[in-house]
Structures are given as structure tokens and as C-alpha cells.
Amino acid sequence: MAKIDALISWKEMPLGAHVDRPGSTVDFKTGDWRSQRPVLNREKCIYCGLCSIYCPEGCYQDMGSEEKYFLADLDYCKGCGICVHECPKGAIEMVVEEV
Amino acid sequence: MIADDLKNFKKITAKTIPQDEPLAPGHRACQGCGEVLALRMVLKAIGREMIAVSATGCMEVCTSTFPQTSWRMPWLHVAFENAAAVASGVEGAYKVLRRKGRIADKRVPIVAIAGDGGTADIGLQALSGALERWHDFLYVCLDNEAYMNTGIQRSSATPFGAMTTTSPPGKKSKGQYTWKKNMPAIAAAHGIPYVATATPAYHLDLMNKVRKAVTIQGPAYIHIYSPCPTGWRMRPELSVESSRLAVQSRVFPLYEVIDGQYILSRKVNKPKPLAEYFKAQGRFRHLDEVTVAEIEARVNAEYEKIVKLAGADGPPESEAEKSE
Amino acid sequence: MSKRMGIEVSLAVSEAVKLADADVIAAYPITPQTHIVEHLSELVADGELDAEFIPVESEHSAMSTCIGSAAAGARTFTATSSQGLALMHELLYMPPALRLPMVMAVANRAMSAPISIWNDHSDIMAERDTGWIQLFVENGQETLDLTLQAFRISEHPDVLLPVAVNLDGFTLSHVIEPLMMPERDEVKRFLPAYQPVLQLDIARPVSMGMFGIPEIYTETKKATDEVLRNSKKTILAVWDEFNRVFGRRYAPVETYKTEGAETILISMGSISETAMTAVDEMRDQGKSVGLLRIRLWRPFPDEEFKAAVAGAKIIGVIDRCLTLGSHGNPVFQEIRSLLYPLSDRPQIFNFTLGIGGRDATRDDFKFIHDRCQTLTQEGQDRFEMVGVLE
Fold first, then answer.
1. C121 shares its domain with C209
2. Long-range contact list for C301-308, CB < 8 A, 24+ apart?
3. Of B78, B94, B102, the CB nearest to C64
4. Model confidence over A18-67: pLDDT tens digits?
5. How many domains does chain C have?
6. What's the domain range around C144?
């Protein structure tokens, strides 16, 4: 029997190959792309939110007005370093991921 | 009337940036992609109650690998050159279905999203038709200055002198040999109510322009300068900074054209040297000083044209502020 | 109550679209389709049809706009010919793949170059692989009826495929024919408002037009192929219902004096009417000949075709376009490969007629019949272009 490289049976193909699960790329963890990750020095953070605004992945989470900092979701962080570069207080540092 | 449309317009401030992410993470955009950052800001400004129509390109491919989608609103992708025509069909359908009482009588923003290729080149006809027919929709051009998704080939939005795979520097070439096509002016020439330029480094400016554009009835066009680390041969962490430098060096002026009247969003009295903008980008590395000076002269001349059209002064550039 | 009237067939298409209460019409003018869209424009301008008439700036945009409209849940119509259809080509693959219903009238016209505004089938035959349901009509009544039926077939939840209704440009589109024009109420009973299965709706955000990696592309095509084949069931059911409501019966293939015929000629579109007259005259001369007209081209009606030609010794297939450089043209190729497995397969010959609007006469059909009697399978190594000046 010839090898089949298919994902699903044609009988399970949804109508028009439309995807009825909005935002389902959350299942795809792009965090394993990176070779370095952002690490926050909370003492320097002024809770300005620029890291969160400028993250192309939108993976910074607001930890709230009590905690007053933003945290990168490492499931998706690609390690681009924009947050490090844009932080007005230099509060974020890139750390090389261990192999 | 634009004034009527904007009567209850609520400006987005640093404290009121919407928290929701209408574009889900897990998309396959490159690290540091300035275009997906721009797209994320556009969608944040509008919210999930909109219909997105994408042209083929980076933003479409990266967000829609079956069976996953990043889009948290209804989304349709058809082909490369027809985002505006497809959006016209959605808009026309919504108009008549509302009128016939088959769907709720509620205005839902329809937004066509395309790259510079899908807008200024192969998509120009469809865009012109849609603007002329006065469809009530917003067209967003995410401009990373080349056909990036197919591997960095030149477009008519590629800046003079830039290296791309189809405008490579060589013994007989200095890179892109024509000046960047002025898409906002072409859109404005259709006499539409709202045209604007924006870039991610000035995020509040961008989001407010987007929100304004979808609030105004009729066709609107926004041109967003979107750095591409991959295509521009640049370190990914510099995307936002190069977006800022583009404005500060006058390469990409920020303005609106409202009912034909140019309004500067930001006056750049003391521009940063063009070399500073070019420095981080490998695509300009081959240019000699003489060429850079020629380009700089033209950049300034183009900027002055906009200032003249605007007539009045816009808000001044502040050295201290990096963003709003 | 239906009313008998004389009307230009193009306008009958427009009237059908009006009776169907279409929502969106996006079209670009091209000879000889122009009267269809002009009249629709008038109907909308006068408020006789409540629709958005979108005067797009090209046929490529026409089909793009139709796709957007259908995705948004509107009953959608367009019309084109020749170069216009060709300009839509890359998009024609989309509605079947995206399962978007719509109806398109094609006023068949020859493809350039040289530029020709006259009738043949080279435009639609280039689109036979796209996945559209494709129908051919012969006269004004059929044109009206099949356009109405097309909406019903297209929007059926088991189908959700676009339908192309082909009428010969000028030779059919521009003639005035007598026909029975139904009333809106009758049509409304036959064709209720479109109920989309999936549409662009903020209440249920769906992504349409996904990026299809090799691991899924094959299965999407298999799924579309199955739907297209199975749509024949719906088409037959709709034809049944149409007959019940309006008293006119349609079938995938129509036979004319084929009982006991040794030679059967195959035609599509309005030249069939000329062919039928030629068959009458040949029968009067004692020739054993009949005509089969193909109405349903895609999905191809294998069983009905085979049953209709069973017993014939010779089949003369008349193509209205050319597959340059090949031994046979599209309709011939379809039929020959269909009948190849039969143990007692007939001899099958291929002729072209009426290319680029050249007239097709009764004498041509008689010529074709007589040629079939003398040709051998080995002898005809390529299609014969009837009437070409050597």
C-alpha cells in the first residue's frame, strides 16, 4: 500500500476547508523557535507596558495593578528582543536558552 | 459627513489601549516581524466585531495554515490581487442583506488587508475600483517594501537604492532604480474621505487613525510602514526602532488626508540623518555616500511637498519622547 | 400565472435573476453578454429588483466580488463571455473549493486571437476542470428555466457549488424567442430565500481560504469531487420539482429520434435546433440517424449518456471548440474515454463546427452524418474541421 502523507481523511474535511475555531493557532507553541528569552528585572520595571505593546506575538500578559509588571508568555515568545530594545528602563535582559 | 461620523469618537490613549488580542499568537511570522506587529495594532484598535479580508502574502500565510487560524473574527482570503474587490463583495452583500432584513441592521466594519505588492502593483486595479465605487470599507496596506512572502523581490514600494532579489546591486546596478510609488497620494486622488499613513513605533497614532477610518462612512485607506527584519537584513529587535527612525529621518512622513486636506501628524523639523536610518539595514549597505546624499535630498524634498500640502504645522517632533 | 411573451433571450436571463430576487450582481460588460447586465442595471435602477449592482472594473474583480458576496451569505449572480471568463480563470477554482454558491451566465464566445465576438464554446471548455456545475441551453425557455433552477441547485445544502449556465452568444443571446415567463409568486415557491450554511458573521467567526499544505490539499480536492458528482442527484430532483411546478421537464441529455438510430450525432447548445431539423430531413431520406444533446456537462452524466447511445454503431461528436494539437476536442475526448471500456463500443468520430461564429447549417450536419459512414477509427487520426477552406 502506498504511503499516505495526509493529515485527515477527505470525509472529515470540513466544508470548504473552512476553519471554525477562531484563534486556534494558540495550539502552535512558537516558543521553541527562540534561542534566547527575555528576563525581567522587576525592580527596574515602571509598568509602562511598551513591551506588551511592541511584542509582535502579543504574548505579554499584564500581571495586574497590584503586581505592576508584564510577563512574556514563553509558550509563544520567539526571542526577537524588541521588548528588550524598547524598554525605556532597560529592565529586560535577553538570556541565552540552554540547549 | 465626516464631522458627524466622528462626533462620538473616543480617542485611544496610553491608559485605554484595548487589552483584547483579536489576532491570536502561534502564528508563523518571523521573529521581530514589524508587519504582524502593525496588524496586531490595527485589529486591537477595531476589536473583534469586524470582517477581515486578506490578500495573499505574509500575513495571510503566517496566520492560516489549515487547520489553525490566528483570526478571531470572520476572515476571508481569496487571491493576491483582489482584497479590495473581495471586500467590495462583502460590503455590497452586507448592505443589501441588512436592507432586506436577512441580517441584523448593524454596521460591521469591513477591512481589506494587503501588503505593498497586493496593493501598489498587482492589486492596484482592484483597489482603485473599490475606492471609486465608494464602498464603505477600510483598506490597510501593510508596507514592508518588497514582495517578502515570495522571497524579497522588489515591488513599486521598494525604496530607491534598496537591495532586493530582483533589484540586486551589481556591477551594473545600484539596487532599486525607481523612487517609491506614492500610494497614499494615489488613494487620495480618488477623493475618498480618509487617507492616512502610520507606523508601529507611533502606536497610539496608528490605532487612532485606524479607529477613525472605520468610524468614517465611505472608503478609507491607511498605509502602514512595516519593518521586515528578514527582508531588510536587520536584527529582529530593531523593528520598532527602524519604524521610528523612518519617521524621524522624514523617510516616512506621518499624515492624514481628510476630505482632500493634508494634515501633518508630526512635524520633523530636525530630521535624523538618513545614514542613521540606513545603518541597521543590510539592504542599503552597498550604497555609497554620494547616492545616500542624493536620496536624502529627495527624501527632504518629498517631505517638504507634504508640508506644503498641509499648509499648517503639525505637532512638533520632541527629542525626548520615543512614542506618544 | 405564467405569461407568454416574446423577449430577447439575454433579457430573459435578467428577468430570471429578478424573479430569483438575487441580492448582489457584480459584472463587467463584454460583448455579447452586455444586454444581460444592462437590463439588470435597469431593473435595479427602477427598483424592480432590490439588489446591489456592483459595476466592477474588470471580470477578475467581478468574480472576486462575487466570492466576497457569496461568502457573506448573499444570493449572487454574474455574467460574462470569452476573454472575460478567461480573465476570471484563476478565481473560478475558488467557489467550488470554498463551497460558495453563485450563478453565472456565460454568453459563449470564441477566445482571441484573432479577436472574435462571435459564438463558439472555447471560453467555457477551458474551464471544465474547475469544479463548477455546467449546463448548456438551446433556446429562450431553457435559458430562463435553467437560470432559475441554477440558484436552487447551487444553494442546496448538499451542493453549495457555483453553477454556470451557457447560452450561445448572439445566436441565442440576441434572438427574440417566445417563452412562458413565470410570475414572482410561482418562483418564490420554487426558490425560497437563500439560507447559507456558513457565512461571514461576527457571531460565528470562521476563517475561509486557508493555506493548504500538501498533507491536506489532496483530501480537499477529493471532497469537492465527490460533492460535484453527487450534485447530479440534486440536479435531477430540482428538475423533477420544476416539472411539477411549471410543467417543463429537463434531463441531463436529450435525445431526438435516436430510437433504432445507427448513427447518433452529439451536439451542445443552440446549434442542436438546426441539427434536429437536419435529422428530420435525413430521416425523411431514410437515413438511420438521431441526435443527442448534452444539457448537463459537469458533472458529466455517465449513466444517462451511455443509456441514450446504447445500440448506436456510430457516434459523431460535434465540438464547438478546438484542443489544438490533439487528436480530439473536449466533448469528443470526454465521450470516447467514457465509452472506451464497453465491449461493443461504437465508432466515435470528431468534428468541429461553427468555430468563431461561422454558421452551422443543416447541410453541415448532413455532411457530418455522411462522413461518419465512410470514416474508419484508424482513418480519423484527428478531429475534422468542417468547412475549413483548404
1. yes
2. C301/C232, C301/C252, C301/C253, C302/C338, C304/C251, C304/C252, C304/C253, C305/C252, C305/C253, C305/C335, C305/C338, C306/C338, C306/C339, C306/C342, C308/C253, C308/C255, C308/C258, C308/C264
3. B78
4. 999 999 999 999 999 999 999 999 999 999 999 999 999 999 999 999 99
5. 2
6. 3-246
Do residue C193 and residue C59 come from a single domain? yes
- In the 8-state DSSP scheme, what is residue C317? E
B314 — pLDDT class (breaks 50, 70, 90): low
Question: What proportion of chain B, given as a percentage, has pLDDT over 90?
Answer: 93
* C-beta atoms of A26 and B17 within 8 A: no
Contact: B78, C94; criterion CB under 8 Å: yes
Residue C93 CB neighbours (<10 A): 17
Q: What is the pLDDT of residues C328-342, one digit of tens each?
A: 999 999 999 999 999
The reply to whether C390 falls in a domain is no
* CATH code: domain of residue A55: 3.30.70.20
Which of C246, C271, C297 represents a domain boundary (last residue)?
Answer: C246
Domains parsed from chain B with CATH numbers: 2-310 (3.40.50.970)
Residues C106 and C147 in one domain: yes
Does the pLDDT value for residue B300 go beyond 60?
A: yes
Mean pLDDT computed over C132-155: 98
Hey, is the C-beta of A15 within 8 angstroms of any chain C C-beta? yes
Query: In terms of domains, do C238 and C305 share one?
Result: no
Question: What is residue B318's predicted lDDT score, i.e. its pLDDT?
Answer: 45
Q: Is residue C19 part of a domain?
A: yes
C275 located within any domain: yes
C224, C259: one domain:
no
Interstrand relation of C314-319 and C289-294 (parallel, antiparallel or unpaired):
unpaired
Number of domains within chain A: 1
pLDDT in tens, C80-135: 999 999 999 999 999 999 999 999 999 999 999 999 999 999 999 999 999 999 99
**C220 and C259 both lie in a single domain:** no
* Cβ distance of A16 and C204 shorter than 8 Å: no
Average confidence (pLDDT) over C356-380 = 95
Q: Are residues C215 and C120 in the same domain?
A: yes
**Cβ neighbours of B295 (radius 10 Å):** 20
Its domain, for residue A61, covers: 30-96
Q: Please check the confidence at residue B312 and state whether its pLDDT lies above 70.
A: no
What distance in Å separates the CA atoms of residue A1 and residue B65, rounded to the nearest whole number?
A: 28
Q: pLDDT of B228-272, one tens digit each?
A: 999 999 999 999 999 999 999 999 999 999 999 999 999 999 999
Backbone CA torsion sign across C137, C142, C145, C147:
positive
Unique residue bearing C-alpha cell 465509452: C339
Q: What is the pLDDT of residues B152-170, one digit of tens each?
A: 999 999 999 999 999 999 9
Residues of A with CB under 8 A from a CB of B: 7, 14, 17, 19, 21-30, 33-34, 49-50, 53-59, 62, 73, 75-76, 78-82, 84-86, 88
Report DSSP letters for C197-230, one per residue.
Answer: SS--BTTB--EES-B--HHHHHHHHHHHHHHHHH
Asked if the model's pLDDT at residue A99 lies above 80, the reply is no
- For residue C175, pLDDT over 80 is answered with yes
- Pick from B308, B182, B306, B187: nearest CA to B255: B306
Instruction: Point out the domain boundary residue: C219, C246, C273.
Output: C246
pTM: 0.97
Quick check: C197 contacting A, CB < 8 Å?
yes
